[in-house]
Structures are given as C-alpha cells and as structure tokens.
Amino acid sequence: MTMLKLIKNVFVYAPEKLGMRDILLAGARIAEVRECIEPRGVGVEIFDGAGKTVTPGFIDQHVHITGGGGQDGYNSLAPPVAPGELIACGTTTVVGLLGTDGFVKELTELYAKTRALEMDGLSAYMLTGYYGLPTKTLMRCVADDLIFIDKVIGCKLALSDDRSSFPDEKEILRLINQVRLGGFTSGKGGILHIHVGNLPEGISVLIDIAKKYATLTTYISPTHVIRTGELFEQAITFAGLGGMIDISTGGTKFDAPHLCVLKALKAGVPVGRMTFSSDGHGGVRRIDPVTKISTYTPAPLDLNLKEMTLLVEEGNLPLEQALQLITTNPAKNMNLKDKGRIRTGYDADLCFLDERLNLTDVFAKGECVMKDGIILKKGKYDQ
Please, what is the angle between helix 229-240 and helix 204-212, to 10°? Predict the structure, then answer.
C-alpha cells in the first residue's frame, strides 16, 4: 500500500508563487496541491509546515560525486560526496561527472556512486565522458551509453582549457550528434555539458555552432562561464541565441555569481536561460604565501542556495524567479522529467525554508530526510 503524507500550512513556491497550500504525497510522487486537503481514512501521516515556505527540491547539475582533484599527485584526489552533504544544502537531485581525470576516476566508479546515492534516497544521474578526447564511455560510444545505461543522461567535454584536448568544431558537432541520437532513442533528451576554461577563445566555437545550426543549441550546456568578464560577455551572446548558460557558484569567477545573474538580466538574458551549479567536491588548491606548501579541500556544495538567497536579499529578485536557477532551469537543461516543480504527478522532492530563507527540512522521493536541521537519512559511512 502506498503511504500517504499530508503537508499542511505551507506557503508554496512551485517555483511560481502559489500562496498557502496543502500538499499530499503518495509514495515518491506529489498527488495533489490544493488550498485545503482534509485527511480521509487511516494511514495518512500529517506534517505541520507551520507556515514555512516550501519549494521544489534543489537540483545540482555539476558535482564531482566521486571526488575531483588529482592535479598534484595521488594524494590530491578529492574524496567522494556523502549523501548527507547533499541533503544538508537541499540538493535532492544531483548530476555526477568526471573532471580532468578519466583514468584513476573511472566511469564505472561514477556509475556505482550514482546508484549508491539513489539507494540512499536521492535522485542521481551521471554524464559519460570527461575532459578529453577520445571520449571515454562505458559501452561502445556516447549514444550507446545514453540508450543502454539507465543513469547516463549526457556527455562531458572540456573546451578552452590548457588541460583539454582542444576539440574543434567538427569534433564537438560529432559529440552533439551522439548525445542527440542517444537522447531521442532513449527518451532522455541528451546534453553535451562543456567545461569552459579561461583561454582567450572562450566559447566562440559554441557561438558559431549556435548561429549555423540553431536546432542544436539546446543540446549544448557550457559551464563555468563567469571565469572572466570576456567569457561572460560571450555567454550572454550564447544565451541570446537561445542557449542555456551555467554559472558555477564555486570555483574561479571574476565577480560574485548572484551579481553576474543580475548583470545578465540587465543585458536582456531571460532568467529561464541561466542555471547555478556548485562544481562541488572538485579539488580546491591553496598555496601558503609564506611556506609555499599546497593544501587541498573539497569544493563546497552549499553555495547554490547561498547565491540564490543573495539574489533575493541583495538583488531584490523575486523568489519565484531566483528559485528557477536551481529548480526548473536545470531540470529543463538536463531533461529531467517530473523534476524541479511542485505539481501533481511530479517527484515529491521538497525544501522547507524559514522566514530568512534558511533551509530547515527536506523531503526526497516523498521521505523526510532532514527535519529541523537534523539529517534523518544518512549513508552507510556518514558520521
């Protein structure tokens, strides 16, 4: 029998502003959203939201779930992500990927970690490939991975980075062909998610592709687009051509991510063409200015929520618009069906915020995994 849960007395942003609503959950799905839902019969578990704000669960489309790093020897490899770390920042859906290293950090390990996070109660997906060419895959090719590997929803590549394979337009178009073919055959949509470095050419090749082949633009997802002001200007041009641009809340940036969103909005970029992602658990290197000793720490996972909050508090952006960057927009970009909204039939992933937009409670797949700031659902190795 499907367990029913009734969440009462909450102010719902779906992310559209709906006002006070009750939400009925049936197992892992949202069964109903109405102004007042009265429990009937037995077996309905009631949660009093006490007037808190409820939003869709947050989606982070760029996380090194197996750990990144490794650019300063074996001991600089970053550790994998624990499920409690994601829950603590409201991330109920995560997309894992590899970074510079496609050799020590293998796709088989990435797949296993993706499945492990699913077993721990979250929604998890992965990208095949890594920084370089030829593209690494689990099967014969990228299209095969999308068609036959359940968790694979796209491919990763690096561009304009001195650690990349310096792909040219034809090589990028061939990969787009693979994700497109694999995407429509499997019904997953398909995406080519492109790490962008800080070399001068930026995303000029992606702009050229968007101008010549407009129908391919939605298959291209450039990330880290605020490394430099020049790259950001290119990103604005790409968005103007119908593309989606991903702003990393961690990592290298020329300005604060929330300020870049405001600049893009002022330049005419619709809020629906921008996403936030954390780049979480990449290896962050710090060099002591005196001793010159290098130390590493995993990149944080909680900056998406912080930057979204700053958009509201400092940028005066309505919450229903700011939320799009971590809910509906990444769901659209990664073709994640039934994610990113509070709507009948959608996945029961919910975040509860207090009056200061602090995260208090989290539901993932209809289960309460964090209550009053205390994580209830932990992985087997979470302390």
Answer: 10
Half-sphere CA count of 44, side-chain side, radius 13 A = 15
CA contacts within 13 A on the Cβ side of 277: 33
> Could you give the CA distance from residue 275 to residue 254 in angstroms, rounded to a whole number?
17
What's phi and psi for 110, nearest 5 deg?
-65, -40
CA–CA gap between residue 381 and residue 250 (Å, rounded): 26
Strand (E) or helix (H) holding 192? strand 192-196
Global pTM?
A: 0.96
In the set 279, 347, 349, 361, the catalytic residue is 279
71 within 8 A of 332, measured Cβ to Cβ:
no
Burial 127-153 (b: 16+ CB within 10 A, else e): bbbbbbbebbbbeeebbbbbbebebbb
User: Is-contact 126 156, C-beta < 8 A?
Assistant: no
The Cβ of residue 287 has, within 10 Å, a number of other Cβ atoms equal to 10
- Residues 267-312: pLDDT tens digits? 999 999 999 999 999 887 777 788 877 778 888 999 999 999 999 9
CB within 8 Å of 14: residues ≥ 6 apart? 33, 55, 56, 341, 342, 343
Is residue 150 part of the annotated active site? The answer reads: no
15: preceding bond cis by omega (within 30 degrees): yes
